[in-house]
């Protein structure tokens, strides 16, 4: 996520987001943050949610590699969501 101006990243891929960072983002007074959708807020993933997502992905991979004739999931079945909390900012 990059606020404009001045244009330096406040979050980078793979960064662990703490409560302090969420508070900081809520306090930013910028016109626009690239990578942030105000209507959706911020999605925060807990370790438990990520573990459930990994388990679901493993199950899908296992089922498709067991030769049961069900190839990779398509459409809505392909989307696995681990979202635990949505935090509106501003």
Automatic annotation (TrEMBL):
It comes from the Bacteria. Residues 58-76 have a biased composition (Low complexity). Residues 58-90 are annotated as: Disordered. Coiled coil: none annotated. This is Orn/Lys/Arg decarboxylase C-terminal domain-containing protein. GO terms for molecular function: catalytic activity. InterPro entries: Prn/Lys/Arg_de-COase_C_sf.
């Amino acid at each position: 996520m990059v606020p404009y101006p001045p244009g330096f990243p406040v979050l980078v891929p793979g960064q662990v987001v703490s409560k302090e960072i969420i508070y900081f983002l809520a306090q930013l007074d910028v016109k626009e943050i690239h990578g942030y959708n105000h209507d959706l807020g911020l999605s925060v993933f807990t370790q438990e949610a990520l573990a459930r997502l990994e388990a679901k992905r493993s199950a899908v991979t296992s089922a498709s590699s067991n030769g049961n004739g069900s190839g990779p999931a398509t459409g809505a079945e392909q989307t696995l969501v681990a979202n635990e909390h949505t935090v509106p900012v501003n």
